[in-house]
User: Which sequence fits this backbone?
């Protein structure tokens, strides 16, 4: 069974940094691309960033480009999101999401339960 | 950026009825459109990929159709557990975008 467990969320002041982690199990991690998708409280879904199986291709939403960095460690079956210069509008539940393929096909067939990031002074 | 518009915003139907959800793209996405279901308090779940392909384990009452800019998700024979928000999502152009969602309520 695929399991994606996010961690690292919490309360952070505007302008500060936070690093999210996702521990993956139940599948061959380095066979699949991975993504982060977020959902602000009571709002819809927003794709944030995606990374191919070998980190050869990475994409970001315009809203986070230059502030967030996605990475993965296939030896540790882990996905990361380094977030800096956080803003109030970054406050959301962040989901770790598995792609259907090793490349960034854009269909997300498994989701974690999310980790909540709260940005407030 | 491709903008997806979903209608209606809310759909209220009785069990057994057919639900028809619409998703319209601001430009053609060919058939590169998916549908997700999000139940209250849960993570989303992939229902449909590439406009009409049911994901693994998805009941046959869920079906998708369309191409270009107009797409439809049909739920034939609503069941109480289908109460959820349904999102469409395009993967034709970066950034991949979601629609605002349609909330399906069961009377």
Assistant:
């Amino acid at each position: 069974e695929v399991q994606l467990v996010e961690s690292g969320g919490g309360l952070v002041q505007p302008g500060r940094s936070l690093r999210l982690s996702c521990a993956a199990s139940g599948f061959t991690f380095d066979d699949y691309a991975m993504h982060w998708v977020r959902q602000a409280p009571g709002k819809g879904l927003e794709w944030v960033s995606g990374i191919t199986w070998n980190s050869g291709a990475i994409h970001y939403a315009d809203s986070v480009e230059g502030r967030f960095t996605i990475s993965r460690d296939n030896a540790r079956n882990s996905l990361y999101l380094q977030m800096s210069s956080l803003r109030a509008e970054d406050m959301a539940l962040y989901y770790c999401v598995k792609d259907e393929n090793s490349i960034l096909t854009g269909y997300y067939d498994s989701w974690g339960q999310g980790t909540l990031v709260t940005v407030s002074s | 950026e491709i903008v997806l518009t979903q209608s209606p915003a809310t759909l209220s139907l009785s069990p057994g009825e057919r639900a028809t959800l619409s998703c319209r793209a601001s430009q053609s996405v060919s058939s590169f459109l998916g549908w997700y279901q999000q139940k209250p308090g849960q993570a989303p779940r992939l229902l449909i990929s590439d406009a009409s392909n049911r994901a693994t384990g998805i009941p046959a009452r869920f079906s998708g159709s369309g191409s270009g800019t107009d797409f439809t998700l049909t739920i034939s024979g609503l069941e109480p557990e289908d109460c959820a928000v349904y999102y469409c999502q395009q993967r034709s152009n970066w950034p991949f975008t979601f629609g605002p969602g349609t909330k399906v309520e069961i009377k």
User: Anything to note?
Assistant: The mean pLDDT of chain B is 96.
